[in-house]
Amino acid sequence: MTKHKAATTTKPSVRQPSLGRRILQMSFRTHLLISALLRIVLICYGHIHDSRSPVPYTDIDYKVVTDGARQVLAGGSPFSRHTYRYSPIMAYIQTLNILVHPAWGKLVYATFDLLIAILIYRLVHMEIKSQYQKTVQHLLSKFNRPRESDQSLDALDEKSHPENLARASACFWLYNPLTAVISTRGSGDCFSSFFVILTIYLLMKSEHKESKSLWLIFCAGLAHGLVIHLRLYPLLFSLGYYLALSTKLTRTPLDFLWQILRPNTQQLCLVVGTILSLVAFTWTFYLMYGWEYIYEAYLYHFVRKDPRHNFSVQFLMQYLGSTAETSALVKFLVMAPQILLILYLSLSFGQFRQTLPFCIFIVAFVIVTYNSVVTSQYFIWYLAILPLCLNNFKLLSWRKCFSLLGLWLLAQALWLLPAYLLEFRTWNTLYWIGVQGAIFFVTNGYILEQLLSHYGFTQFKISYRKLL
Known about the structure:
globular, single chain, mainly alpha
């Protein structure tokens, strides 16, 4: 009797995806839900922390705006509260802090924190898909194989798929501890950053919706005017937006002058929308609160001197000269490098809509780095735009990315030590803080140079066989 050995078949081992990959593969809605719960937990923690700790979790500006809201409910002006120097809109938002719950404003800002992630997701998805379709059309035309404009995404590798890139970019914002903490502390910077990204989104979308392009650009102007009303710094993004809508390259000073004096229809729509929105809000609140509103919300920021310790390289100079009047020449020498850099970067990266997000990001980075006052909240100005550009930094290795991040965090930590000793131990560390502010400035300058030198256009790995 013969014995037959049963044939054994071995199944190929399937490699299980890593935990990080499984988390990223979750749907975008799931990430939004998790992020919303995390922010609710932080808001609840902040409420408990404030009741038990002498060092508050809640931002001091949140308390100032709440006091302004209390003045509004009493029928007065929010500017009756000393140091209230924001748009009255912020006080109106936080009136429910008094009528409903003190954490209401934090919930509103955390909601806009999540809305920023939605805009990031949609904008990155739209741009990656559009760039892929243009790449495929160019590839097929080289082989004389015309194809419909609505290209299938099957030929893309997994890492370059719009869905994956858009979800990863949004998660970079959603799970950033700095942005989550700042919004749940009650900072309104996420509120204004939302309208900055909305402006970019509408301008980028206008290129894909030709039938509605003028309306989209006009709406972008309305959003831009609103955010200038909320915070003055987005005014410096205007040149980048304007040049992105041009039909000719600006190569010489004469070309630049011609662009300003002879705007095209799209540029006119942007300018009209911006002016209409800005004037409408400014005039309305001027009628309500008079010259006090103009001075506190706008003019004060041009003449302010803040001797309190902050990250700015100008801190020590302002502290030592807080009792003296700064000459016009000194002000010019301080502002000239910043203005020249912004002009150069806007002309270099603002003339193409594909590079517009990077243009606005790098301009925001320069604004914060060179600003006369720099606090942690100001980092949101460029961190909100950074996810739009992540796909353009593929020339940066992971090791280089982590080294730049570590350098940025280390420079902050070195500043925080003397700041802590000054504020909580009453040590005289003002000169130490000034030196660390200079080190932080140099660090940011190095990071700026690295980002500029490693910026590149989006590249795709495409399977030509799948296109046929």
